[in-house]
Amino acid sequence: MKSGLQRRLLMLLLLPLVIWVMVSAYFDYRTASNVALQKDERLLRLIPLLADSVIAPAEKPDLLPVLLLAPEMASFLKDSTGATGFRVSNLDGKFAGGDAWIASMVPSTLEPEFHSIEDRGVIYRIAVQRVRTSGGELILQLADGSDARQQWVRSILFEVLLPNLILVIAVGFAVNWAVTRALKPLLDLKDAVERRSPRDLSAIDAEATPAEVQPLVSALNRLFSLVNDQAEGQRRFVADAAHQLRTPLAGLQAQVEAWAQAATAADAKGAGGMVTLSTEKIFKLRSATRRTSQLANQLLALSRADTSATSAQPMQRIHLKDLCESVLSIHLDAATAKGIDLGMETEPLQTSGYEWLLRELLGNLVDNAVKYTPAGGTVTIRCGRINSARDALAGVDLAGSGDARPAGAVGVFVEVEDDGPGIAPEERAKAVQRFYRVLGTQVEGNGLGLAIADEIASVHGSHLALSYTLQAIDGPRGLRVRLELSV
């Protein structure tokens, strides 16, 4: 926008000035031409006076004529602004009087002629004519060094073009500064819109923008309002649908769990093949019910993690150690049933955020780790302080942003580490997308765990960092998911 609009404004403002310079030069030339014509006419008027100034002695006609200049002729030679002179020659061009430095010119006719010569850096306009005088027929020449037309090129360069060129350059800098200052509110508006988060649909302050772009800002605000209403409607729909599904799904899951326990007990008593088939179907139904119930809970958590849902709530001080302990207690039974060593390495640290969202984030990470870690594996919940190059995320592949916190930055982190199969670097950006599941995954799931965690990380102004944890013979494996937060 700056290069296009500013260039057009500069061109539109400077073009009239350039045209004015050209027109000024043209009129200067016309003025010089008119002055030159007037000087030519004056020279023509002075030639007869020069002829009357020639007096030749009668008794010695071979001598040079005597010159007695007329008053007007003397005034021309004395009072002219430029160098002047005259020459009297015989018909052969031989010098007979006046100024010898004027080159001899022999006209071919009786009509006056005009010539231009340069002598010692001065361009002279010379009028030449054959005239009958009292001393006989002579060639008279009048030279005028103040001819405006001959001096026009020099004067147009130093008196018109050069000053106007300096003026154009100065005006160009002034106009560029003025245009840049005038466009600054518009450029600030552009930068403010570019820096906005995709989730930030709040209205732009129209009063802080120039009057010319206020209609555009008002139109953008209406568009933001429409998009925000649509997004809010979708979020409410997902939240309401998930909330309405939770109760019947919970009841259905309870019934199916009871049937599964009864079928397992009957199968243990040896009720026969019919019971075994029924038990298998009930277990499949229980698995489907669990996935559906988990999906409803995750959809509800995803809608609650929306930035718009937390914008009106203040952040709180959160004890990370207590948060990790509460999440560990929730998933300890599932880890123990699978033979997984679920442990914790924590420090008594605090951060600012939304506790219920961070608990959801950490719970999803631990749930994923327990699911994907094979039996007999290890899952560790960890929180600590980031204050050295050792703790910085140098070289870690990040999900989403592609950058890392610089070494030496101060902050805290929470992370979940496991020794499962891990996620390849090329899959990590996709792994945090909704409903995406890594190819070859055998564990049941909906592809929302990391997406919810990444959404919550975004609410806290951070992102998830994914990396390998182990170097095995068959390649790197294990997964560490880290979230960095401010103190």
Description:
The chain is of the alpha+beta class. The chain folds into 3 domains: 2-154, Beta-Lactamase; 211-302, Helix Hairpins, CATH 1.10.287; 314-485, 2-Layer Sandwich (Heat Shock Protein 90). Helices cover 51% and strands 18% of the residues. The protein contains 10 helices and 16 strands. The chain has a 5-stranded antiparallel sheet, covered by helices on one side. Strands 9-11-12-16-13 form a 5-stranded mixed sheet. β5 (113-119) and β6 form a beta hairpin. α7 packs parallel to α8 (355-372). The longest helix has 55 residues, at 214-268. Residues 389-408 have low confidence and may be disordered.
Stretches where pLDDT is under 50 for at least 5 consecutive residues are 389-408
* N-to-C order of helices and strands: HEEHEEEEEHHHHEHEEHEEHHEEEE
What is the overall silhouette? rod-shaped
Strand order of the largest sheet: 4-3-7-6-5
The level 1 CATH classification of the largest domain is Alpha Beta
The CATH topology of the largest domain comes to Heat Shock Protein 90
